[in-house]
């Protein structure tokens, strides 16, 4: 299941980047990137406390980017 999760993670990551760069739909991009987080690309058997700091940092930055995109989309789409 872990290998399949990596493919789903990468797929939603690419979809989010496509929506951000090509379509310029910030809310959809943030949502797709957020869904990607549901498919943890790292070993899912390792608990949060036992993960290396760099893995925690990657996931936290990823979450911050998702929240920023959604906030940006909501804040600047009020034409």
Characterization of this structure:
With 79 residues, the chain is mostly helical. It is 75% helix and 0% strand. The protein has three helices and no strands. Helix 1 packs antiparallel against helix 2 (26-38) and helix 2 (26-38) packs antiparallel against helix 3 (53-76). The longest helix has 24 residues, at 53-76. The chain is globular.
Summarize the structure.
By secondary structure, the chain is mostly helical. The protein has three helices and no strands. Helix 2 runs antiparallel to helix 3.
Strand coverage percent = under 5%
Order of helices and strands: HHH
Low-confidence regions: none
- Specify the overall morphology: globular
Structural class: mainly alpha
According to DSSP, the number of beta strands is: 0
- Roughly how many Å is the radius of gyration? 14 Å
Share of helix among residues? over 70%
Characteristics:
75% helix, 79 residues, single chain, 0% strand
Question: What is this structure's SSE topology?
Answer:
Layout: H1 2-23, H2 26-38, H3 53-76
Helix pairs in contact: 1-2, 2-3
């Amino acid at each position: 299941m872990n290998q399949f999760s990596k493919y789903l993670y990468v797929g939603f990551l690419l979809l989010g980047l496509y929506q951000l760069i090509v379509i310029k739909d910030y809310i959809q991009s943030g949502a797709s990137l957020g869904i990607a987080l549901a498919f943890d690309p790292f070993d899912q058997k390792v608990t949060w406390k036992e993960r290396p700091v760099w893995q925690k940092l990657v996931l936290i930055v990823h979450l911050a980017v998702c929240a920023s995109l959604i906030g940006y989309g909501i804040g600047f789409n009020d034409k």
